[in-house]
Amino acid sequence: MFKHLVCRGRFPFIIGFLVTVLLGSFSANADSIARQWNELLLQAIRNDYARPTVHARNLFHCSVAMWDAWAAYDNDAYGFLNNEKLSASDIEQARHEAISYAAYRVLKVRFQTSPGAEDSLQRFDDLMIDLGYDIQFSDLDGKSPAALGNRIAAQVLSYGYKDGSNELNDFIGQDYKSANRFHPLIPELEGNTGLYEPNRWQPLAFDLFVDQAGNQLVGPPPFLGPHWGSVSPFALHERDAERFQRDGVEYKVFYDPGAPPLLGDVGDKEYHDGFMQVVEYSSQLDPTNGKLIDISPNSRGNNDLGTNNGAGYTLNPKSGQPYAPNIVLAGDYYRVIAEFWADGPDSETPPGHWFGIANSISEHPKLLKRIENKGSLVDDLEWDVKLYLALGGAVHDAAIAAWGIKGWYDYVRPISAIRYMAGWGQRDVDNNESYHPEGVSLVPGLIELITPESIVSGARHAHLAGPGNSNVGKIAAYTWLGPDAISDPVQDTAGVGWILLQNWWPYQRPNFVTPPFAGYISGHSTFSRAAAELLTAFTGDPYFPGGLGEYIAYKDQFLVFEKGPSKTIKLQWATYRDAADESAISRIYGGIHPRADDIPGRMIGERVGINAFEKAVQLFGN
Question: In the chain, how many domains are there?
Answer without folding.
Answer: 1
